[in-house]
Amino acid sequence: MSGGHKARKRFGQNFLSDASIIARIVDAINPQSDDNMVEIGPGQAALTRKLLEQLDALDVIEIDRDLVARLEPLREQYPGLHIHSADALKFDFRQLQKAADKKLRVVGNLPYNISTPLLFHLLEQADIIKDMYFMLQKEVVERMAALPGGGDYGRLSIMVQYRCQVDNLFVVPPTAFSPQPKIDSAIVRLTPHAELPHPARDEKYFAQLVNHAFTQRRKTLRKSLKSFIPAAQMEAIGIDPMRRPETLSIAEFVGLANIPVENCPGPA
Fold first, then answer.
1. Would you give the DSSP letter of residue 6?
2. Rounded to an integer, what distance in angstroms lies between the CA atom of residue 228 and that of residue 235?
3. Is 148 within 8 Å of 248 (Cβ atoms)?
4. CATH number corresponding to 203-263
5. How far apart are CA 224 and CA 218, in angstroms?
6. In the chain, how long is the greatest CA-to-CA distance?
7. pLDDT tens per residue across span 236-256
8. Which of 3.30.110.30, 3.40.50.150, 3.30.70.1060, 3.30.470.20 would CATH assign to domain 9-192?
9. Which residues pair with 178 in a beta bridge?
10. What is the pTM of this model?
11. Cα dist from 145 to 102, 142, 165, 179, 193, whole Å
């Protein structure tokens, strides 16, 4: 697919154009011919073509109708290409699971402006996903992979790692794109856990508690979570209420969320 499409800021478009980086991404994904693969934001099909060379079928989701029209001719060469003109943020990925024992493999160069909400949308459907390979802002990948105690560790780290193993694979420089972004990107692999290591009794409540803690991350747990959990209940499960939220592991946050409701006043 040749040039001619002007990248649109409203869609956060930066098209991958470096052949060596594309080859490295494909090597990391290691596509098998019968994979149930989905690409989000195929753009100008730089990665799409390389995937189609190795796959029997590929579903792509593209919001830009101009790009959808430019993808259509590829179907003559690759009849297994299925194009969905849709917003990935609102897309029901479950419809693409063709067999119960064949989970989705999801790949994509995610637009910076929607990367976090799109990740959360996909995590809600993690039970049907085998793995995910995404190009994201380097700093977003670092936050996703961060461990307790550092400045990068926060709500995103916990909510992604609650559901997935996170592997920060490699950095992609701005020169690999057209137009060039002003920041570095990185490739991340997310592998949903077959069984959650630390299951929360009520995942919605767990998410609320984590979110609330990090909206006031400079405060101690005693202060930031006082509307959720009394300090005495934190101490009862071995958590010092004078700690700050970025020092807690996922298991400890789940422990807080799993305190019986009758022992806690709940959020105000």
1. P
2. 14
3. yes
4. 1.10.8.100
5. 9
6. 66
7. 999 999 999 999 999 999 999
8. 3.40.50.150
9. 15
10. 0.90
11. 27, 5, 9, 27, 15
